[in-house]
Each structure stands twice: as C-alpha cells, then as structure tokens.
Amino acid sequence: MAFGDVKTAQGLNDLNKYLAERSYVSGWVPSQADVQVYEQVGKAPAGNLAHALRWYNHIASYTPAERKAWAAGASPLTAGGKPTAAPAKVEDDDDDVDLFGSGDEEEDAEAARVREERLKAYSEKKSKKPALIAKSSILLDVKPWDDETDMKELEKHVRTIEMDGLLWGASKLVPVGYGIHKLQIMCVIEDDKVSVDLLTEKIQEFEDFVQSVDIAAFNKI
Question: Where is the Elongation factor 1 beta central acidic region eukaryote domain (predicted)?
C-alpha cells in the first residue's frame, strides 16, 4: 500500500490504516523508511489515529543517532503517483559493503542495547524515589475531673505515651469555667502506624487525672 502527503488529513488516515497491522513502515524492524515518514509527519498524530500515534511515539523514543543507524527500507510515500524508496546510506568504499547485512544487525543490536540501558536506568531511578508518608496533625482536649487536678502531672502522664509514629508538640491550659482548665496538646502521627482511637484510650487510662479526651482539630499534612 502506498499513500500520499502525510501532512494532510487523508494521508494521515491512510498511514493509520497502513499501520493497523504493522509495527513499522517497512519490514519487521525500524528502517530509514520509518525515518522518512516520521520526518514527513512532523508531529504526533491526533489521538483518534491510534495506530499512527503508537508508531510515531515509538520512533520518537529513539535518538537521532540511533535512527540514523537504521538500514534502508522501501517507503510507501508516493511521488508523482509512484512509491519512492527511502534513501540508502552512501558508502565511501564499495569494498566495505556487507552484502549479508551483518553490519545492520550489529547496529540494530547496539541500538536495542542502548535503549535497554536507558529503560533500566529510568526504572532504577523511579524505584529509589522515597514513598510519601501520610501524616496528620491532631489537637487534643484533655479534661480533668475538677479544679483540684494537678494539670502539670496530667500533662506529664500524657507525654509518657510513646508510640512508633507519634510526636508530641506544644500544649497550653485553656479555662473551661469554675476554675477548671483543660489541657490542649498538639501531636503529629503517621497514619499507618498510629490509631487515634488507641491514642485517646491510652490517655483515658490515666483515670485519676483524666475525665475525657476530645479531638479539637484533625488535619492531614
């Protein structure tokens, strides 16, 4: 199948149909035919041209040096109604021509090796990216039984609670009336490690000091 100007909508449609059952423009490996059509297309086809877009992105993943090393291939582009052949590489010396194409195979293998190394390096870099740790900032209201409760001792007991992923912060006493103050204390927790319900239960275990515990504020960090 030959198609015309791939800069036109019709030419791109023809290219998309042509690539529906093909990975490359000519043969089973990328060639100069792919380079010729790729340069004619100039930019990624629209999303509705799925086969042409897939082929374009694949060819674009190679470097210009890698594409230059590809062997010649028959191009389906037309000039004056006739298919044109992709330009063959010019050799300086006929004696150096490999009639069996072993040089092309070596170049294809080298291009594949370089691409594999790039993919491996990208995967290793991505795997080393630190995982995001979900944290929350919590403001707790710890209420005593009465105005005779030693609030300094109450806070001291609260801060003795140690859990992996728990960090205590600032605190203050807030009047609630009749001479009674509640302890407002800030903490930061790692969501996967600390249960808020378990934390409040541990605080309420100091029943000689603590009447109740409420969550005054809860914010994701």
Answer: 99-126
How is residue 92 annotated by DSSP? S
If DSSP codes are grouped into helix, strand and coil, which group holds residue 218?
strand
Residue 109 has a pLDDT of: 80
Q: Please give the distance of CA 188 from its chain centroid, rounded to a whole number.
A: 28
Confidence (pTM): 0.43
User: What domain range is 175 assigned to?
Assistant: 135-220
Q: Indicate the number of domains in the chain.
A: 2
What per-residue confidence (pLDDT) applies to 4? 66
Cα angle 142, 148, 153; round to 5: 55
Alpha-helical runs (H) found in 63-130: 64-68, 102-127
Domain stops at, among 24, 52, 69: 69
Q: By the 8 A CB rule, do 196 and 189 touch?
A: yes
- For residues 16 and 71, the answer to whether their CB atoms sit within 8 Å is no
